[in-house]
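Input.
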Amino acid sequence: MASADEVKAIADAKVLMVGAGGIGCELLKTLALTGFKDVHVIDMDTIEVSNLNRQFLFRKCHVGQSKASVAREAVLKFRPDMKIAAHHANVKDPEFGVDFFKQFNVVLNGLDNLDARRHVNRLCLAAGVPLVESGTTGYLGQVTVHVKGETECYECQTKPAPKTYPVCTITSTPSKFVHCIVWAKELLFAKLFGDRSQANDLNAQSNDSGGSTKDDADVFDVHEDEIYEDYGRRIFDHVFGYNIETALRNPETWKKRGAPTPKYIKDILPLAENEENGISNNSSIEEREQSLSAMASLGLKNPQDIWNIVDNARIFLKTLQIFFERRKQEMGSLTFDKDDQLAVEFVTAAANIRASSFGIQMHSLFEAKGIAGNIVHAIATTNAIIAGLIVLETTKLLRNDSKNYRMTYCLQHPSRKMLLMPVEPFEPNRSCYVCSRTPVSLEVNTQQAKLKDIIEKAVKAKLGVNSPLIMHGSTLLFESGDDIEEDVAAHYAQNLEKTLAEFPVPITNGVILTVEDYQQEFLCSINIKHRDDFDEESDGIVLSGEVPTVASGSDDHADESGEKLPIATTEAGDGSDDVEIITADSLVTSGTKRKLGVDITCNDDNSGNTKQNTTLTTNTVAIAGGKRKLDDNENDVILIDEDPGNRKKTRLE
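Output.
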């Protein structure tokens, strides 16, 4: 039972809660029932249908409304004496600066993306306000505590960026089902139903000059007097047959990989059979008009079934027919929406047919929707557990009970009979470029890279700076903001187009640039290193030093056996419902040792004797950095084993 001092600390606390989605709904409810009386909630999102299965403060009538506002109204119904301020806004807006953050005793994050998390972390450091970070992914979750000068900040550990794929992989050499989904969603769906004036890399390219692909305008336009069934079969043959044959004309491409098999509709679904499998003529006109699902029209009911190639072909043709006959007014302006059943059916069928061509395992509509809609299927109970742990750590922060701060990991399977694994937080990482302001190194071709490339690809995308100010010594190269005079803005615009070596004082190997963000009160030094050549996926930019390494004393999280504790810093299914994809080489390993901050009492299964006060240590670790690995056949978090190193770090007392 809480003491009088604890009750008073809770009642007097002013709390900022960022995010009102899956974790946020549970968290606001738990804060209210615990006795917190003054809470501000920031969330820029509106309620979607897909949120309703777990974000219990929302109902169907709330779809389209502000999450923050609806959550506030829902909680006030059972805690009318509570003061809740709802902000339907982006936490990165200028109004939520350091001064705004300073008014709070603690900040609680329930966010769904890395960029916003980094921003909040920096504002908390600048304001000197403790941060409780959290995330869930399916059954996995964690809560971490970050106190300036006492514990590591959120960015002390590596957070791999979402995986991206070269266009050539998507269009010509897919090897994973996610490649097929991207192709079906971003290229084919957009070409058929979106703005056709936009550039599109749909067709495969051939080295054979005489075998170039057909004119897009001719292929994807509906011919005069052409019925939609014939149109669908023609599109099928073009994208799954002709384009595949075109790709096969590049013999070098298939020397070290399996060649695809062209698919033609006549071989899968003869015309007579297709007519038999269409909507029955006995169906009423009303039923046909009301049916906006190809699955329903064709009698396919279970979204977790994996369709065979014939069913995928039928779905492909039927979705095309329904789009053109019953949603013709939307053609040319459609974008993929995970809540659009027909769009999901089309993308699933198209991705499966392409997967079949390339020897990739096909997936069910349920699985395909999770990938295409960027949904990691959420577990509401995990959100509730994590919300409770957030509040527990918040009460410790309000009492300044630093000896009992814990980073707690929620596991899918028990480890030593525990599903909740508490770990003592670490001291700030001396190699962190955010809280320790350690310089970073940027490898770039200074003769070719422009200043705008450095700003967009490194400063904003990798360092997470929103409003950068770039200086070379005392020379101001670039500054962002709305209050810049026109002539100064024009000068900065000219600088953006200059290569690094073109500046009056050339930016070459060994030069140090200074990056600042006044809103975040962020300062970082970048050491430029010239490099001539880069591989295709590096995009001409290699930033190092921002990710802790073994040599610099980086510290990650593991249990006593060295097994990695999976970190899920995306609230599964929340907000944008992002699925992040990481590769094994993006995980960081270290040889640090850490004591688990818990005394465990357990029974020996053989003797029945009780072992008490067992202190457990860790040997080696790799973290998933806030992302899930999305593989062809499963959605497991990567766990890798490495030999432990020699570095040991001081435990936080």
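The two ends are 26 Å apart (CA to CA).
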